[in-house]
Design goal:
elongated; six-stranded antiparallel sheet; about 20% strand; 3 domains; eight-stranded antiparallel sheet; alpha+beta
Amino acid sequence: MQRTERKNQDLESEVRNMKRFLLCGVLLALLAGCGTAGEQLPEEVPEETEPLSGEELTASAMAAYAEITKDLTFTLDVEEEDATGISLSITPEAARNVAGRENLFSIGYQWEPASAEAWGDQWSDIESRGRLFAMTAPDGETTLQCCTGGDVVLWTVDGETHYACVTAAAEGESGLSGLLQGIAEDALWDAAFCGPAVDGAETDYEEIARQLNEAVAENVRHVPDWVSWKPLDFQANGASVFDAYYGEPENFCAGLGFRLLVDDPYGEMANSWQAGAGLGEPDADGYYGYGGEASIQKNEDGDWTCDGLATGGSAVALPLSGSGEEAPLSELVDAFFLTEGFSHDWLLPNYILDHPAEDMTALPDLLDDRTDAEVRELCAVLGRCLRDADYWDWTPETLAETLGSYGAYLDA
């Protein structure tokens, strides 16, 4: 499905063009930059402003988290044991499990006083401190830091710095670092699937979908190894456009398919890929099928992007003044001739047939402004819809009567 002929590019040109616009390893999609050693740790560990009790510590940490996340816009830095790292710019679109999580602090974790010295000792123990997570408010003043290999947590709120030893209340659960890692993993997922962009000059929808398909797969393969949902391998497995709108704003929908390899289809790695009916059966190479529907449109820079994958029910965005059948009949007819695929063959005809008889009397006049080929096209689709389903108030006979001389086209 396309508006212009496919460009006759050789393989080398296609690959070069794809690599130019995919956000490899999500380093350009969401990552604000690479961390450096000690970037989130002052040269000198700040002394605690005033010692607090367990309950006071919890309340203070809750206030810090709430302040950082109040607008769902903040920075989350992740530093590895070898001092390499990433800086994630968290936005509302990627903050699915952020809001209100401070309410778990008092019931999900146990808080005991700690000291600046304890934090310094934990940080200096390079072999066991693990990964550092540091979330920072937009003003740069409020922070919350913890490590995967230790229980000491550091935060600053309202100009006061505090430390606590924080452990999970339930046996076998992760500490506060587990919460922050989950936020980071959600952001990386969003970057992998929503970050890629294709040159807006490209007009071939199938080619755009193919490039986005490849770019998403490349991004997933390049997320950090500590991400729990990162599969052993992730390959593009084809893209197909099923709905298109050629008006303004121009947009279309495509199914994106992938093949993924996991260590255990029932393990942690596979959990995020178990959408719908699950992974199903692997192919002969041990790969599982995965896919979804992508709504693809141009961003503010004029490049083609998608907003992630949906499990179903996707359709193009139409500039209608009302929702669905509530839109004026004239708008639905205009949109019909600017669409191809699902919206053209089913959705818009459904909206038209949902209109009452008093509205439909205007349809012949609207068709008078169209070419004979266009009239035949719309009437044929309406007739097919009426023959395929019987839940409308309309029948082929009653609609033919309303259409007058155009009624004969319903059987085309």
